[in-house]
Amino acid sequence: MAGSAAVAEIGTGMRLIFLGPPGAGKGTQASLLLQRYGTVALASGDILREALRRGDPIGRQAHQYMESGALVPDEVITELLLQRLETLGKEQSFVLDGFPRTEAQARALDVWLARTGHKLIDRVVDFDISEEKIIRRLAGRRICGGCGASYHTENLPPRREGFCNRCGGELRMREDDRPETIRKRLAVYHKQTEPLLNFYRNQGKLRVVPGDLEIESQYEALLQLLKSEQMV
Ligand code: AP5
Predict the structure, then answer these.
(1) Which residues are within 8 A (CB) of 108 and not within 5 positions of it... i.e. 6 or more apart?
(2) CATH assignment of 4-130+193-228?
(3) Atom 6 of ligand 1 has which residue's CA nearest to it?
């Protein structure tokens, strides 16, 4: 892992979207960029789960969709994410992890950034991975009930089995990581999110990074890409 080295310099206003199916490593890679470069990471799934933990009406509304593996309605998630983006500076670097996930969300984001005078999205990274690997990763994922930190039973185990390194909270499986819900999430990804690859390819922003490497190698491949684009 990259560890918690001092925050390094980053190109001004690098704005990235991480695409890719469930388990492709979007959250893991966003958190490595955060540790190394201090890049703000906005993860739509985490934002929804936080809202649910707090008992917000929006979290309760989203829960029925999330537990079945369906997407939360576009208006709900778009409003939530744009509210978060509004709190950032117009040039602030960020990674969007899990948003947008439909063409309607992508269009709403582009329109909002342009209308509010924010710097537009620079690059969209697709983490390409086989379904077999996805299933193994999600089956082994464990999440801290206290702070939401993510682990993997084999690939990223906690120091003390079953408990979070960060806050000591108990680790549990995510309710949507059950096999039948994973299958639904994958089907939803192919139908509703995969078309975004073409959407961003047509904008000339799409780049592909292998998602089936080990965590460190995947991170190296991502950094190599960002360096080749003069972003770090
Ligand atoms: P969300 O939380 O975004 O789930 P997801 O996209 O399905 O993504 P994951 O968190 O499962 O995968 P990831 O790619 O981040 O992988 P991770 O790094 O964690 O969304 C959940 C739900 O919220 C949705 O189903 C939907 O209902 C709703 N929602 C969210 N956004 C929405 C939107 N925009 N519109 C509508 N609804 C929305 O890694 C997974 C595991 O693998 C971890 O255990 C990790 O340690 C391990 N791992 C990671 N990388 C590697 C590697 N390279 N090698 C080995 N192990 C690895």
Answers:
(1) 74, 78, 82, 100
(2) 3.40.50.300
(3) 22
